[in-house]
Specification:
Layout: H1 2-14, H2 17-27, H3 29-61, H4 69-122, H5 131-144, H6 147-175, H7 177-223, H8 228-233, H9 237-290, H10 295-336, E1 359-366, E2 376-383, E3 388-393, H11 399-406, E4 414-419, E5 422-423, H12 429-434, E6 436-439, H13 450-455, H14 466-475, H15 477-482, E7 491-492, E8 499-500, H16 504-517, E9 522-526, H17 534-548, E10 552-556, H18 560-563, E11 568-573, E12 576-581, H19 583-589, H20 592-606
Parallel strand pairs: 3-10, 3-11, 6-9, 7-8, 9-10
Antiparallel strand pairs: 1-2, 1-4, 4-5, 11-12
The structure holds adenosine-5'-triphosphate.
Length: about 600
Amino acid sequence: MQFAAKLNAFIQNTQRLIPALRLVWQSSPRWTILRLLLVTCQGFLPLISIYLVKLLVDALTHRTTISNPQLILQQSTPLLVGVIGVTLITLICKTFSDLVNTAQTQRVSDHMRSILHAKSISIDLAYYENPQYHDTLQRAQQEATTRPNQILTRLAQAGQNGISLVAMVGLLLTLHWGISIILLLAAMPTILVRLRHIRRLYHWQRIWTPVERQSMYFSWLIIGEMFAKEIRLFGLGDLFSQRFDQLRKKIYNAKLQLIIQRSLSFLAAQLVAGMLVGSVYGWIFHQTLDGSLNLGDLVLYHQALQRGQGALKSLTSSLSGLYEDNLFLANLYEFLDLTPTIISPASPKAIPVPMRQGIVLDRVSFSYADSSRQALHDISLSVKPGETIALVGENGSGKTTLIKLLCRLYDPTNGRITVDGMDLRDLNLTELRQQISVIFQDYAKYYLSAQDNIWLGNIHLPPSDSAIVAAAKQSGAHDVITRLPQGYDTMLGKLFNDGEELSIGQWQKVALARAFLRESQVIVLDEPTSAMDPKAEYEVFKTFRELIQDQAAILITHRLSTVRMADRIYVMDSGRIVESGSHDQLMAMQGTYAHLFNTQAQNYVLA
Ligand SMILES: Nc1ncnc2c1ncn2[C@@H]1O[C@H](COP(=O)(O)OP(=O)(O)OP(=O)(O)O)[C@@H](O)[C@H]1O
């Protein structure tokens, strides 16, 4: 029963070969064909070579029976030329093989990276909040760029060595059938040791991935730019280095055990193999001394045995390598098999352009995966085209979460969100997101040109469209950019040559321009001016009001002085809407909003 299960697992495992080879083929069909041709040549060349050597030795040893040296020369010269020719061809094949191998490895690894990128883009945001996903991603990244190509290499090597081995075994069979059997027996212990080690290594890697990731995290903290300031000011460098070292030491110790076990087992296997092959050599020399074999035969069989052993060794190494590749490919497929759940329906409805009734959240509740708490609870609100609503509330009250649901980065656990009465889940996802322009509080800083930073908001426009400058003027970024050395062509950030760093408020203006550039029906600004000075903030909101016209706008801010402009204000607390109305209505209610507003106003006066 156990054997059947093992066999089944082995077959399942082998099935991964085909798609991996398909990936290799897709990435570089011409290189693949060339490689297979070279491998076939390289497989046959050793046989031709040693056969010519045998004929040459025979011709030379006939010297004793043939008295005419001219005749001997005539017979042996073409053979010698043949041996040299084959050696030369072998060398040329080897050189081309290396070239093809290097070129194809590059192609396959780039192709695999593209596949990983495509998958990463398609999967749900929720995956990124799951540690197991990060383990899977890390393992997939480790395998993706090397394994598929390695499989082809090993298959090619196995083919090449297989051809050589069959030829050598054929030769040895003419001497004694038992020799081939002994060769095979000699290879068995090594094969078994390898397979056992591969399985151990695979399980070891799965167990240790989280620790590996943790250690890499500390390395990233120490090396990365993002934490460079705090690490220096808080003196955290040594602490993080120590934590990194501790983790690496744990990994090292565990791996060392694995390697020691493998080495000892290999040593034992090699000793057994050595004794078996040694006995065959002994027998051949005995036969030669007996006179049963002549000198040419001795050379032929010695070479056949040596090369046969070499080919068998390489073949078993390639086959066990293939087994390893198959096993570890599971890591790649585990990632490639992840399926997004936030997708367009099979027959999506067209998103209305322009919207008439607007967006409605109808009793929406939501919990993040693996969280028992509800981040949103029974939320109902609406925003019509041309209206601006504001969401206010303490940290963690659910404002950003609500926006993420609106963009369908997540789907509600209960309730529904509609656009003109149509559930978001019934709409085309790409079209929906095209109609929403969002700048989150943790907006992106792209280390690209200033122009690209804004253009990314609407890549359907030409990269130097005049609308980019218009959007920059609206957000206040234009003045910042024109003062840069190369204006809109200036590289932002310090990651690449000639980059210019911006202040946080300036980066925010650039991000805001990106949002303004998007031709969408809904605009969402999540803390868009938190880093701006009061004058810039005032300008942004003044422009914003003029700008939105028919757009539905949602504004999230802690600065209550700016939410007065909203048509309606929703006050959130612990995932619920606790108050809603205009500024005046809410002030009159003397509830949470009025309290927050008065506290801020008081602080402002005190300041
Ligand atoms: N990715 C996530 N996974 C699990 N829980 C999350 C996640 N993001 C936010 N939360 C939780 O959801 C709740 C609401 O968070 P949210 O970011 O929506 O608050 P917020 O009102 O925007 O806060 P802030 O004013 O600080 O930006 C918080 O309790 C937070 O801990």
